[in-house]
UniProtKB/TrEMBL annotation:
Entry-linked PANTHER family: PROPHAGE BACTOPRENOL-LINKED GLUCOSE TRANSLOCASE HOMOLOG (PTHR38459:SF1)
Transmembrane annotation, as ranges: 34-56, 68-87, 99-119, 139-155
Family as reported in the entry's similarity comment: Belongs to the GtrA family.
InterPro entries per the UniProt record, alphabetical: GtrA_CellWall_Glycosyl, GtrA_DPMS_TM
The protein's name: GtrA family protein
Organism: Phytohabitans kaempferiae
Amino acid sequence: MSATVTGEPSASSSPRPGFLRRLWERFGHLVHELGKFGTVGIIAFGVDLILFNIALALLDMESLTAKIFSTAIAATVAFIGNRFWTWRNRARSNLAREYVIYFVLNALGLSFSLLTLAISHYGLGSIWPAFKNPIADNISANIVGTAMGTTFRFWSYRRWVFLKPDAQPVPATVTESK
């Protein structure tokens, strides 16, 4: 009988069983890190979004200043979440060192949001006034810029801030001679 009649998948319709296991063994830790990083990021994004809009509407800040203000506070929230949850099992170096490097990299990540906001609000907004409104500012800074900045942040934090634990030395094996 064919695979469709018995209900069993044919060998050609599914990957080898060992393939998925090897794939998970190789990248499973990365999936977990991405999930935790994303959770922390969603919380920090909410803080950023709320504070950005409060700064625009209630504090009457200029767009770029409002984005810097909101991102600085959201970055602190994200640092705490990433240090003590996302990468809690990574090697700990000096907390001040991590915090300084984190904020330097975060400033570079912020530049993506500021660049997309400036292009939209001041560049396109000077041609089409529809780009000079809170909705366009939110789309350019908090969707486009944040997506670009988040990709950069995940890569850079793993590489320079939250370091891998030192590799454990491999014990020497004793060879028996017969």
